[in-house]
Structures are given as structure tokens and as C-alpha cells.
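[retry 2/3] DUF2848 domain-containing protein: previous attempt timed out, resubmitting with same input.
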Amino acid sequence: MKTITFAVEHGTGKTERAITVDTLVIAGWTGRDTVAMERHIRELEELGVRRPEYTPVFYRVAADRLGPFAQMQVTGDESSGEVEFVLLHDRGEIFVGIASDHTDRQVETYGITVSKQMCDKPCANTLWRLADVADHWDDLVLRSYATIDGERVLYQEGKVTAMRSPDDLLRRFGSRGGQFADGTAMLCGTLAAIGGIRPAERFEIELHDPVLGRTLKHGYAIETLPVAG
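[retry 2/3] DUF2848 domain-containing protein: success.
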């Protein structure tokens, strides 16, 4: 359990809101476009990750892994980030945020749940109310940039329509026995990487709303620790 102070953005400005997260869920294989999802499954299969028995899959991760971290440390050079929209339930309301499902790809080849637990999940400290974007949800755009060998490149880009809608995901989560109760945060799936999955020195994530003209952003540096044995 951890408490994160977010700024909730609305039409007249921002309001500070402290949200206690006691349950963190990573939703995997959430593709609405089955062709795009299959591309991502194959992308990970090339790294040795087994394809799932069913989709979507809801992995549990320690709540302390989520936070507005500006930097993180990882073991070895086999990890990478993924931009994902986040749903948070607090005091009867659902909020939308942005986070990176940073994952150890080497560990992922033999244990996806363990690989998700290996790394922090950096998130932006600003949220939107889901109700404020629900009527134009399909217009929202996810984007990420990676700094690799000193060069900043576009790493992922696409509309949230690549993933299942919030209502669909939460319904499927419930059908698997999950409860999206107060204090629950869910990362909701990602896009294929442009040029393939690879590590970076810095990772930046965005969720852009072209209708209301606003963007959630976050970036973090990655320090690679040596592997002694």
C-alpha cells in the first residue's frame, strides 16, 4: 500500500488529490485489434516469451512499484519500458493516467509475473477523470520516446483503440474474479515498439487528448547495475 499525491486536471485547472493504492494490476495482451496484438505476441516470442493461454491476462504486482519516479535502477541491460494508460479507482471515481510497464525481458522468458515484479512502474503525477474523456476516448493517442546511445527516438505511437476500452477491460477483469475496488490501479496494455524492443538510457511516455488539447507526460532515467554472477 502506498499513497501518491496526484494533480487531477480539469477544465478550470488542477486539484491535488492523495490516492492510496493497495492493489496494482498489469493487464497484458489487451489488444482490441487482434492483428496488432498478434504482432506484439510474436515480437515477444522472438525474445523467448511464451504466448498466453488466454487474453487478456491480469498480473498482480506489488503496489509499491507504482510511482512518479524520475529515475530507476535495473539489473543488467535486458529491461525496457512500455507506455500504457492507467485506470485508478478512488473514492467511487475512476481516473485515467499514464505509466510505463518497465519489464525485465530476460526474466520474462521464463516467468512473466516475476518479470513484471522486477522493475518499478514510473507514472505521471497528473490524472484525468475518465468521465471527462469517455465521450471521445477513441481519439486519445499513446506515445513514447527512448533515448538510446544518446539519440532520442520515437519508440511507440498509436491510438488507445489498439487496446480494449476501459469498460471492456474492467468487465473482463471482473469475469476473472477481479474487483476494481477503491485503491486499485490497472496498467492496461501497450503498443508494438517501432524498430523492436530494446533497452534505453531514458524513457518518456505521453497520453495526448486532441479534443481537449492536453497531454499527460512523464519521463525517467534508467541506471543499469552490473551483474556480478
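[retry 2/3] DUF2848 domain-containing protein: The chain is about 15% helix and 45% strand.
[retry 2/3] clearing retry counter.
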